DNA sequence: GCCAACGTTGGC
DNA sequence: GCCAACGTTGGC
């Protein structure tokens, strides 16, 4: 069971929006590295939901409810989407500053390449973040 | 608002 | 195929 992290600007689509909607199509990714991660997601994989621009924190956990399929918003047909459903919010958001300060997360993909909108999370990183969430 | 990082585009 | 120019993301 792999772990992932997705970024979203809460002004555009927040974790609360996902909870309200029950599920959402995660489309619009137009970056090859991010798209490779989307393609690697399996149904049931869990996904940390990070708020960029505003909040700057991991705020909840989602789950892949449908594996990669063609992104209907992409005319070229090169990119894929997945479907996500909410699992639960974190008891306490884990901020970017806290993550940067934790040596256990120094290798984390999202910290090493800040613009990557979909990235893998290693099991030990997942445990560290959930530990920080209390 | 600025700027660093990085991806993409297009001329050659 | 190289690389300069340009656009976008996202933290500060």
From TrEMBL:
Pfam families: EVE (PF01878). Residues 4-132 form the EVE domain. It comes from the Bacteria. This is EVE domain-containing protein. It comes from Phenylobacterium zucineum (strain HLK1).
């Amino acid at each position: 069971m792999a772990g992932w992290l997705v970024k979203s600007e809460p002004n555009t689509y927040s974790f609360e929006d996902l909870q309200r909607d029950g599920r959402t199509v995660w489309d619009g990714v137009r970056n090859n590295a991010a798209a490779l991660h989307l393609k690697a997601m399996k149904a049931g994989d869990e996904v940390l939901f990070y708020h960029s621009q505003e909040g700057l924190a991991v705020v909840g956990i989602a789950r892949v409810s449908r594996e990669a399929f063609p992104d209907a918003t992409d005319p070229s047909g090169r990119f894929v989407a997945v479907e996500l459903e909410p699992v639960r919010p974190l008891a306490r958001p884990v901020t970017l500053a806290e993550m940067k300060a934790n040596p256990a997360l120094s290798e984390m993909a999202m910290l090493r390449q800040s613009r990557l909108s979909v990235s893998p999370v290693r099991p030990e990183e997942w445990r560290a973040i959930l530990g920080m969430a209390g």
